[in-house]
Amino acid sequence: MTDIASDRILKLEDISVEFDADYIEDLCSNPGSLSLMVIDTPGGATQQRHLNHSSESTWKHHGFVLTSKSVREITVVVTSNIWGELTRYHLLEPQLVELFLKEGVGKIPIKTRPENGGNTTGPHHQMSLLVRASQSMADDQSSEIETALWARCVHFNTVLSKSGPSVRTLDETMPDIKRLLCSTPPDSPVRLRTLMLLASAALDRSLRAEQPDDKALNDVDSLLNELSNGQVWVLRPEFQAAVAQLRATVHKARRKAITNTCRVLAEQSLEAAETLKTTGDVTPIQAVNKKLRDLVATTPINDPLRPGIITMLAENLLHCARGKEDYDINYLNDAIDCLEQAFPRSSRSTDGLGQVLTNPGPTTGGVKELQSVQRTLSAALRLRYALLNKAEDLDRMLALLPSDTHDPQELLELGEHLYTRFELQEGSLSDINRSIDLQKSAIQIALAGDPADGSKLGVHPACKEAAWLSRAYRSLALAFEARFKQSDDLVDLNECLRYFRKTLTMPLAPAEDSSVRIGTFQRLASSLAYYALNHQDSDHLEEIMTLLVDLVSQIPPDGAKNSLISPSLLWMVALTLGSMARSLRNPDVLRTLAKKMAHPELDLYPGLSTAEVLQAYIDFNLDPSPSTNKRTMPIIVKFFRASLASCDNIAVKLGLARILIAQPQWYHSPQGDESTSLTNEGLALLEECFGSAPEHDSTFHYFVGRLFGGPGGLDQFEKAMSHFARATSDAKLPPERLEAAYEWADMALKVKSTDSMTAFDVIVTTISQIAGLEQTVEKRHRMLSGLSSRVLQAAEAALSFEEVEKALEFLERGRGLVWNQLNSLRTPLDELRSRDPALASRLESVSRMLEDAGGQTRILEGGSGDIMERRLALQEEESTHIKLAREREELIETIRKVPGFESFLRPLPSSAWLADLPTSGPVVVLQAFKARCDAIVLVPGRREPMHISLPDFSPRKAQKLRDGLRLSLSANLLVGREAIGISDETDTRTIRPSGTSKKSVSEVLRDTLRELWKCVVKPVFTRLGFERSENPDTRIWWCPTGLLTSLPIHAAGIYETTNPDSESALDYAVSSYIPTVSLLTERVRNTRLTPADHAGICMLSQANAPGFEPIPGTKKEIDRVVATVSASLIRSTRLEDNEATQSALINAMEHYDWIHLACHGTQDTEQPLRSGFALADGRLELATIIKSNLKHAEFAFLSACQTSTGDVKLSEESVHLAAGMLAAGYRGVVGTMWSIIDRHAPQVAEDFYRDVLARSGEVGGKKRLDGEQAAYALHHAVRQLKKSVGDKNYVAWVPYVHFGL
Prior knowledge:
single chain, alpha+beta, 5-stranded antiparallel β-sheet, CHAT domain-containing protein
């Protein structure tokens, strides 16, 4: 604020002090007690006067004059001689100027409380300081001129103050006011009043016109600005309010003018754009753009209309950019520059734009207006990014899109942009994570409404259309595919497949190019092929080929059908088929799949049939013999060359190099110069690969390893092992790692290197990962068929290096995986629950859901019309399943961070198995693979496992015995309990084997049992020091593997009375079987006593199950069991015929710890969990029993046919009913290895229960069936049966076996 003019003199003529009524009495009692001191600042002059009592409430002094040419501040001090200083008040320049302008009395309230240390006990009442001020000019002439100016100003004010002055009056008066303004000195107060009059008149005149005059409004703005810059005027509140009101009126008039102009220009823009589109004439739209630029320039930056004007101009510029055949980048740049004017310059960085959109400031306009600019600018940037591929355009585009939007279109676009940045700029994982989240939100909002505001379907109109959803599904699939390539997370791969499938379920939009459809399919097919390759899954390969064939018919006649299959896709399919062929996985299925590709439209390369290529690749990998190679190699080489010409794939190069280098040994190739030329070509390719392969490319190292060490390779084993080791460590997915480890282990064994132990360690670990909890039990079993042999090979290798504990560890970690997984899902959580109840509850819940999901059977059923929908439904289930498995892994990792739970659910070391063995006998693990047979014996109290070599028993002999026995049993129809005719050798109903074999089933069994005794059981018993006994009480648990799993080891012996060497296993020990050692030790660790209200037995007989032959002996069997247990007052229940239903049996299993089932048993080797028991209302499947989670299950007697018969392909998984009942929770099970004879079963059952009861004790004064006595009781019952039917009637007494504790 400037000083008061130097030619002005301020006179403070009277200063009075006025008090409130409460103060009067005190003041009047002390007349003359007040004095006043006025200090002039900064001069410091001081004048002090006594105040006189002039009225009841006023004390004043007349004639007090203070003059100053530079008054900024004065200080007034009121003092009482009684109370001291009452107040010290500072009058600052604004207050003084106010007094000067008013030229009257100013009343200023002041406080009476003393300051600066004055008396604090004085009165605290209100007083006011009254000051009369006046001013005078330096000379009388100036005063007269100003008085005249005031008079003119008052006159004009009177004229314009009349209500509603006419336009004519305004036009006549305004020039006079302007002349007065010109004659008024700049520093005169009259000038300020004149400016106000002129501004009001000009504004009034502008508003009277039909269209507000923009020039006139600008003139008013100038006048108001001059008013605002006045030296003194701005201090007067009433004048400030008047100026503010004028400004508001100007703003309103200007917006009206801008709005009208925008409407006109919008219409002109549409017409000009249409002209440009139809004629290509850019002149009209350029003319409109000039007007728009002028309008932008004259529109205030904070006007909400400004963004809309900018958007209109930018859209016109975009029309110009698209108006030619090629985009005009200049127009595009101009549009982007124009749009950015809508944002303040400081916000035009990547982060600033997004912030302004979220929190618009006072200079940016409203949110809606800015969003319009945002969308147009985003479209322009996207167009320029597509043309010039500038990364900064993409960054700016991303910054423009608000992250908190609930518009599906915006969410989808933001997600797509993030995906683009991730793909093209190698963005961070956070980019693709956010992309996926946003696109999922877009789809969710579009389909179900926005949960944030409760809106309905169709938040964005375009989102209702199939084309929009198709685009959204495809974009999300691509994002999941991109993340999978970096994370190798199966959840991402499954989601990728799911959304690609969803895309293909959407109808083809009328405007959609068939190439888009083909491209979507190819991405789906590539993902399916990748899944199939890394999971050895023929189902996904079949889907690829089925869809290929179906899609051929959907493409229009003019479509490029041969583009359905890309070079990379064909290579991936061939590689997958070859890999699966090497693993001997259903070669017939693979050949059938290859034949499906026999369509000319699917032939990618001229003169090369796709089906023929795939067939050759299968045969080459299945049987790489010279005769096969001679037929397949020319096709494969041609395929490799064509593939290499169309896609620069390092795997293709290495594969071709390997073939060319090895061609002299693989098949009868041309000799001489041509052969040398091919070899040199292969070496050149190899050298090229070494120069270009990434350091951690597992595919490269795998193929190089095969080239160095494979058949016909360079025979450099050390290099081969090194590359296989690198491939193993660099592999991202388990199947890829497994195949590399296979090659590494095989190569190490060739050179007798202990590196094989490391390789086998990887193999065993990876097998358990491949058959993980994220898959159904059925699929896990399918994956394991063909893999388990590697576990046996690992154990054999460990034994060859005399690493017995390692061999046992391999067997335990790699066998019985499915049942062990089920057991882990039911791990007791009592201890964890005491530490963290919430964590325990969540793990229990997730484990239960995983168990249910694992028991499902996912079969593609239904007609061909809805195949994609059905695949999609299955994919949804698989995705949920995988997510549950992942969540369980995360929960387990969290639990392991809890003190005391560091080893939670980790594999136990062999020392733990030795510590938890039963004390009543040893455990014998029998191992037989390719080169040797061995026994690993675990003896209670012994710290290390015992190794017993079995040199007289070879794997070849084991296979001969197994195959011979299975063939004989099958030939004699021993597949059901109804085979009652086999009672003894002289029975007229004895069935002779079909075929050319001259041996009966009994003779085959006799020879089998003799060989097992001589070569396996007797050497073990001798080493253990077992002694023969009439009633042996020593237990022994057999854990056979591989070829030995279906051989009757428990009955091994020489059963010839005339032979002095006649003896058997039954004379030395009581035998039981276990699938794995860990299952037995788990039973030993978790001992329990069944509650009294669950102790007892349920006995079921089903003699006439629908669809099965009658077995009348079951009723007699249950009659005798009932009579036996009832005599001991055992709690029991009986289910028979129509009462023997699925629900009734499940209910009984939940309430009785023992069950006895006399019925038909069925085994499904393809889907083991569908194996079960034939009841009145159908089959009670093993899956249902397992899901029941039987907490008090103790013992199950399965008096049914072949309840312990396993599947040769899954010998290490014990996929039979007896093992399944163990997995369901039963601690012991009696089963049968083949069909039992119906008329013998009642006697066996009666003898069994009599012996159990005789051995069992009492609990709480009541007899209780003791499951740990079951093995002894069965041993007794079988010996009784053997005595009854004769030793040689092996079919009758050998099949009964005991499993478990």
